[in-house]
Amino acid sequence: MNRIAFLVVLAGVASASTGALAQQPVCKRQGQVDQAATKALQEMLQRADPKLKQTLAGTWYFETRSPSTNQVSYMYFTFGPDTLFAYRNRVCGGLTGGCNDYEGIGLFAGIQTGNGVYTTMSTVSDLNRDSECSGGTLRVSGSTVRDGAGQVWRKVR
Fold this sequence. Notes:
Elements: H1 3-15, E1 28-29, E2 32-33, H2 35-47, H3 50-56, E3 58-66, E4 71-79, E5 84-93, E6 99-114, E7 117-126, E8 132-141, E9 144-147, E10 152-155
Antiparallel strand pairs: 1-2, 3-4, 3-10, 4-5, 5-6, 6-7, 7-8, 8-9, 9-10
C-alpha cells in the first residue's frame, strides 16, 4: 500500500469517530464479543509501549512461500505513530496462477518484556473479519522485526 493510500485509510478511520474503532475497541470470536479478550486488548492499548509505536511507525514487508500450494504471500503492514495499522496482502500462484489482494485495518499494541521482545495484541477488520483479535510476540532489532512465528519483517518506508 503506498503512503497516500495508507494516509487515506488512516484518515477514514480517524474521521469515523463514531465508528467501531474509535469507540471502545472490542474483540470478537465467531461474531460475538469476547469480554476477556476485549478487556485484555483495552489494557494493552492503554499500556502500549511508546518506543515500540515509534519504531514500528512506517511500512514493513515480508513474504511467505508455500511449496505445498505453490503460492507466495507478499505482506505489507503500515503502522501509524499511534496504535492504528493497515495491511495489504497479495497472494499469487496456486491452481489459477493469478493473484488476489486482501486489505484491512486495525489496532495494535505491545508491551516490552525485556531484551527487545514485546508481547503484542491486535484487532483487525477486513472483508472476512470484524474486530478479530490475536496476540503474539515481536523481537525488535534495528530495522528488522521477528514475529513469534519466526517471520522476519523488513522496514521499507
